[in-house]
Amino acid sequence: MRDHANERTGANSGATRSNALARVGFVLSFPHEHFLCQALKRTQTLGTIRNVQAKLPGCWHAMAFVIGCAFMSGTAGYAAMFSEADRQAVLDYWESPERYQVNMAPDAQSNGRWQVRLTPEGSRWIWDFNRARGVGKVAPTADPLAGSPQVEWSKWISAKIAYDRYIAACDARAANEVHFKRPFPEQTMVPGPGSMPASLAAIMPEPQSFAEAVEPKQHTITFHDGKVHKFVDNPNMRANYAYYRFREGVMDAGTSMRKLDAGQLKELLDSAKISGFKKNVFQAVSLLEGGLDSVNTYDTGFVSVGFIQFASLSGGAGSLGQVLLTQKARDGEAFRKDFQRYGLDVKKDGRLVALDLESGVEAAGPEAARLIIKDKRLIAVFQKAGRHSVPHQVAQLLVADRMYYPADDEVIVTAGQRFQTFTVRDFVKSEAGMATLMDRKVNTGNLGPIGEVARTIMETYQLTSVEQLAQYEQELITKLVYRENYLGRSELSQPTPPPGC
Over the range 191-230, which residues count as b (16 or more CB within 10 Å of their CB) and which as e? Predict the structure, then answer.
């Protein structure tokens, strides 16, 4: 077995940081102001420039300009969040070889070192297919191929997926037999799907393979206080999952909210000033997601963290950036201990900031999100905070309340020639109804067709006021159920039956 840990440790030595210096050295050999400024922005450190100075004595005239660029970088270029001393401290912390180990996945002996997985390209094709046929976001638990207007399309896609998985399984079997020097079970032959239907080819390109043989690896991160976090990359998705994007991504649902000690949960909710009606809604919705220490870096959320999966999205900010901003504003010292000392921060506009733990280069926004996906040490930092830091846990609850609790959202309802604006709390009176809307908002970012559903109900029953609409909450919520049906749940208050029932 190759020693991946040794490979990584070697890459984390001073030699790797020298690569960053070499890039600057190459640029400095050309005394052109634009290139010099760009070099400085890449390295973001005067210490690096001083090291290059010793290597390139002939560039003294250019060095003065580089140092001048350093003082301008705060306004004209990227303003670094980490000082040179802080950056070095982070690199020194992670340089210890015991901090990070990479090995075969724990099920390699039983399931093989090489295993079959969905490809991100195939997953994206399914997502594009749904858009092409006019289907919006599909609930993660639903079959994205269900309801296809062309039965022929669905049959061909399913056959293609099955065939691709068969081919990938054969590849994995061959590689495993070579590695383990023992036979693995043969695969049952699966016929090919045949030619892509012409009507499907008219709206979609030929898909790449939906499956491949991959080598999942386990990443073990050990912090100085003995806390250990383990992740396996190449997560095993459903064969037709539409949101898988990153092979190097990981997932860990953490400790479910339902397993938290009742006293601990009450203390957290009290700290976030969440009680009564709202507390019951929060508890119901959070059970669908994960734990405060839940992490996910494999799907369209890019970096997702926490009990309702606060996501950075492709911009490297999103609701996750708001969680970090909230904690940093409320308790700067806790934020330093939870994030900054390990190489993570957040800008005032909510963009994530991450250090490349090999080179020390600082990234923000989309680049930071990709660094966190790539380097499992960084996502372990998030999980550690979610598991052990009360200030971070409270920040999650505060942002969830601010961004996803829908009671104060406005809904525009068109009735005839009139436009009426209602507030959700004016016509959704039950915990089950509010939980239904919060679940939808958490997962999709909005309340879906609530305005259209409200309009239809008002026209059907000739209603003229929001008070009358509230009497039909049960019918409205029934039509807005997304992932979970909260109607009838005994632990939640329920809508009153509509008039005449």
Answer: eebeebbeebeeebeebebbbbbbbbbbbbbbbeeeeebb
CB neighbour list of residue 230: distance below 8 Å, 6 or more residues apart: 218, 219, 220, 221
- Domain limits of the chain? 4-79, 109-215, 220-402, 410-478
CA 195 to CA 207: how far, in whole Å?
12
C-beta of residue 405 within 8 angstroms of C-beta of residue 438:
yes
Quick one: DSSP state of residue 413?
Answer: E
pLDDT in tens, 102-151: 999 999 999 999 999 999 999 999 999 999 988 766 666 666 666 666 88
Q: In the sheet where 344-346 sits, what is the strand order? A: 344-346, 352-355, 362-364
What are the E-state strand segments in 308-426? Answer: 310-311, 344-346, 352-355, 362-364, 410-415, 418-423
What per-residue confidence (pLDDT) applies to 376? 98
Pair of tokens at residue 330: 């409320």
Q: Are 377 and 259 in contact (CB under 8 A)?
A: no
Q: How many CB atoms lie within 10 A of CB 253?
A: 12
Q: Which residues contact 223 (CB under 8 A, 6 or more apart)?
A: 99, 229, 380, 384
Residues 6 or more apart from 485 whose CB is under 8 A from it? 436
- Asked if 28 and 36 touch (Cβ cutoff 8 Å), the reply is yes
